[in-house]
Amino acid sequence: xxxxxxxxxxxxxxxxxxxVSARVSEEQLPELRIYTVTADWNQSDxxxxxxxxxxxxWTLIPNSKDHKSIGTVLAPGPCVPVSGExxxxxxxxxxxxxxxxxxxxxxxxxxxxxxxxRKCLNLTALDIHGRVYDDVQFGCLSWSGCENKxxxxxxxxxxxxxxRHDGESAYGTDSSVYSEDWGEGLTNKSTPVLCVxxxxxxxxxxxxxxxxxxxxxxxxxxxxxxSVIFVGWYHEPFRLGLKFCSNRRSALFxxxxxxxxxxxxxxxxxxxxxxxxxxxxxxxxxxxxxxxxHNQCLSLQELDLKSGKTSTLLxxxxxxxxxxxxxxxxxxxxxxxSADSQRVVFSSAHRNRKDVFMVDRRSKKxxxxxxxxxxxxxxxxxxxxxxxxxxxxxxxxxxxxxxxxGFLPLANEAMTWRTLQQPPLSFDFKWKFLDVTPAPExxxxxxxxxxxxxxxxxxxxxxxxxPLVVFIHGGPHSHFPAExxxxxxxxxxxxxxxxxxxxRGSTGFGQHSILSLxxxxxxxxxxxxxxxxxxxxxxxxxxxxxxxxxxxxxxGGFLSCHLIGQYPExxxxxxxxxxxxxxxxxxxxxxxxxxRYTSVGFPFSYDRIPTAESLAAMLDKSPITHAAQxxxxxxxxxxGRDRRVSPxxxxxxxxxxxxxxxxxxxxxxxxxxxxxxxxxxxxxxxLNTVLWLNQHL
Length: 697
What we know:
Shape: globular
Number of helices: 11
CATH class of the domain at 429-696: Alpha Beta
Number of strands: 38
Helix content: 10-25%
Structural class: alpha+beta
CATH architecture of the domain at 429-696: 3-Layer(aba) Sandwich
Distance between the termini: 13 Å
Radius of gyration: 26 Å
CATH superfamily of the domain at 429-696: Alpha/Beta hydrolase fold, catalytic domain
Strand content: 35-45%
Largest sheet: 8 strands, mixed
Strand order of the largest sheet: 31-32-34-33-35-36-37-38
C-alpha cells in the first residue's frame, strides 16, 4: 500500500491500449484477395499525463476455397503514432485519406494518397468558419461519391456585418454577449454549420438553408452528392446538455447544395446516427422519445429514399425474456451495413453484457454474433463492418481489450472469430454474473416483476475473508458491462473484491426497467444496490460483511452517499466523484434541468418555474437529508469545471460533515469536468481512493 506502488499499478492497468476505431480495405491480386485491417488505439501514459493515439495494420488472406473465412494472418506492422489527428476518413474508391489535423493554433485539412501528401488547406487561416467539430455528437468527415468534395461540421464565425468599425455592436461589445453552448463535454460548441470543401479548386463554403432553430451535425452525403443528410437538434428556446442524453428533440433533414431543406423524420422525436446502405437505397437511424429518461431503449428506423416511406426495423423492447435481445441503447458505428445492404450489425447492452447483434431487414430477425458459451469475453463492441468483415473489441473484467475479426456468416452458419491482437498482459482474478431479484416488498407495483444484475470480481489470491468494494455506475440510465475496467482491475490486484451493480433503471434490461426508476430515485435504486450486496454476501462466504465500502461517480456518487446515510452501520468507507447531494440546489446550475424534474417524477417543459412542491420532492430524494446519520468516512473528488453536477454539490456535503466532526476529505480538480477524465486526475483519484479504503477498512 505504498503510494508509489499503487500509482505504478494503476499506470499498468490503465495504460493498456484500447482499440477505438478500425477500417478495412481490400485488394484483388491475380491469384488471391487480400484484406487490410487498420486499427486506431488509445493508450494512457502517466509520464506524459496524456493519452496517446497510434495505428497498427494487419494483412488477412482468406482461404483459397472459401473467401469468407480467414486463412492466414500476417504479422502486424509497427505501431505508428498518430499526432494531432482530430478526424480522418477514407474515400470509397481510390482510398484517398482525408485528415483534419491540429498543429499549434491551426487546423489543417490534409489529403493523402499512395505517393504522400496530395493537398493541404489551412482551415484556420481561410477564416470561413470557426473550429472544426471532432466530437462524437456533431462531428463528421464525409467523402462525396465522386471524391471531389468533403463534408464536415464547424463552429460558425461571428457575422462581421453586426460589428461597427470600432469593434462594438449597437448593444455594446460583442465579447460580453452571452453565448449558449451544448453543456458538459461540449462547452466550446454553440452554433455548428455544415461545411464543404471542393478538392478540385480548394474552395471552402458554408452550406446555406439549414433552419435557423436547428444545430446540424452527424452529416453525410446523399446519393448523387448533390445534397447532404444531417441530424438537426432544436436549440430554441434554449440549449440543453447533449452528452449522455438520447432524449433531445431533433430531426433528420436533407439539404441540397443550392439551399433547399426538407425534414425527413417525424415531429417531436429524438433521432441520431443516420447510416446509408452501400447500394444507396436506404437510410437507417435511431429514434427515441423527447424528454423523460435521459437515456432510453431506441428504435431502429429505415427510410426508403426513393419512396420516402419510413418503417420500423427494430422496435423498443419493453421487457425482454431470458436470453432474448434486449433492445438498442447506444450509437451505431459509422459503418454498420452488410455488403448486400440487407443486414445491419451493431453492439448494445444486454443485461450484464455487451454483445454484437445482426438484424436481417427481410425477416427482422435479430441474431447475436458474439454470444458463445465457451467464450471468455463479457463485452463485445463493434468497431466497424466493411466488405462483410467485422472488426470488434472484446474484453472482460480480467481480460484487457482484444482485437478480433470475422466474416459475416451466411444464413444458418455460425460466426467464426480470429484474434488479431492479444493484450500484452493477462490477469488471473475471477469474475461472475449475479442475477438479483427484489424482495416482494421492494417490487415496483407499476412495473412489477423486474429483476436486475451485478458483476462480482474477486482477487485470485487472498487470505481469510475479502473486503468488498461496491462500485455503482452513474447515469442512472447507463450500464456496467462485463468489460475491462481499470479501476476494478486495480482494486482486484490490490486484494479487494468489487461488486458492480446494474440496478433497475440501467440500460440493457428493457425500457420498463428504465421507466421504473422515474420518480423513484433515492429509494428504488438505493434498495437495489443494497439487495445486490446482500445477494453477493449470501452467495459467496469469502466476502467479509464487516469490511464494506461504496464508491461511484455522478448518480453513482448520489447512491453511495444515500447508502452510507440510510445504512450507517453497514458501510465503513465511501469515495464519491462529483456526486449529486441536493437535487433542489442543483436545479439552477445543471446543464440538464429537464432531468432534474423528470428524475423525481415531474414532467418538464421549457417554461416550467420551480414550485415549493417540486423543490420539496427534489430535497426529499437527496442524500443531504441523511447527512446527520452518516458515520462512514467520506472521500469527495470534485471537478471545478463540472457543468452537469456543480462541484458545490460535493461542497454542500463536505460542510455538513465537517460541522459534525465526521471524517471527510475533499480533492478539488480545477481543470476537470464531470467525468474527471484527465489522465493525471484519474491516477490521483485512484491513489487517494485506495489509501482511503485501506485506512478505513
